[in-house]
Amino acid sequence: MKIIGAFGASRYTIRELELFRDADTPAVAALLAACPVVKVAKGEPVEDGLRARLYVVLSGSLGVQPATAAGEGEIQRVLPGESVGEQSVLDDAANLDAITALDDSELLVIEPALVWRLIDEGNGVARNLLRLLSFRIRAANALLRRRQKLGEFYRQLSMNDGLTGLYNRAWLNDMLPKLVARSRMDRSPLSLVMIDLDHFKRFNDTHGHMAGDTALATAAAVIRSALRPSDFAVRYGGEELMAILPNTNRTLAVMVAERLCARMREAVVFDDMRIALPHLTGSFGVASLGAEQDERSLVEAADAALYRAKEAGRDRIHV
Ligand SMILES: Nc1nc2c(ncn2[C@@H]2O[C@H](COP(=O)(O)OP(=O)(O)OP(=O)(O)O)[C@@H](O)[C@H]2O)c(=O)[nH]1
Question: Which SMART domains does the entry link to (predicted)?
Answer without folding.
Answer: GGDEF (SM00267)
